[in-house]
Amino acid sequence: MNIYDKAKEVVSKSYSEINIGDEATLTHTVTNEDVVTFAELTGDVNPIHLDDEFAKESLFKGRIAHGMLTAGFISTILGTTLPGTNTIYLAQNLKFTAPVRIGDTITAVVKVIDKRDDKKIMTLETNVLNEENKKVIEGSAVVMKME
User: Do the beta carbons of residue 64 and residue 99 sit within 8 Å?
Assistant: First the structure.
């Protein structure tokens, strides 16, 4: 399935169908190709992400994925699942709490924690956990749902 076909499968809920406490998740195993592609797209070629020898000497003792690559899975949920189509990102707070390594399986978790009905604005808890259920990112997002 190509990217355009995937776009046709995006969830479309109205603002009124979304409730405080609603939650969505996305699980992904981070690959070397993910890291290299992200570096190529963004130009972030920091050797901690790409150079095994350099990374072995670092605080992390090996290569790690870009923090913003990991955070990108939060955006995937917001735009495709919860709230889904017609969502406008207004703000995102992130705290990177642990490294993500190539081969780690991460799960992004988005939960609606507040709604402002007059402007159709939602606040969401946005966390990413690794396969050991350890938070690697904790944060929150503010989005507007366009109908």
Answer: yes
Sorted by sequence, the CB contacts under 8 Å of residue 126 that are 6+ apart come out as 74, 92, 94, 108, 109, 110, 137, 138, 139, 140, 141
Q: What angle do CA 135, 138, 139 make, to 5 degrees?
A: 165
Model pLDDT for residues 120-140, shown as the tens digit of each residue: 999 999 999 999 999 999 999
The answer to whether 85 and 11 have CB atoms below 8 angstroms apart is: yes
According to DSSP, residue 84 is labeled B
Dist. CA 99–CA 132, nearest whole Å = 12
Could you tell me the two tokens for 121?
Answer: 């604005």
DSSP string across 18-74: --TT-EEEEEEE--HHHHHHHHHHH----HHHH-HHHHHTSTTSS----HHHHHHHH
Measuring CA to CA, which residue among 41, 116, 27, 36 is closest to residue 74?
Answer: 27
Q: Determine the Cα–Cα distance for residues 59 and 15; give it in Å rounded to an integer.
A: 44
Helix (H/G/I), strand (E/B), else coil: 99 = coil
Q: Which helix (H) or strand (E) element contains residue 119?
A: none
Assess contact for 140 and 78: CB atoms under 8 A: no
| pTM, 2 dp | 0.89
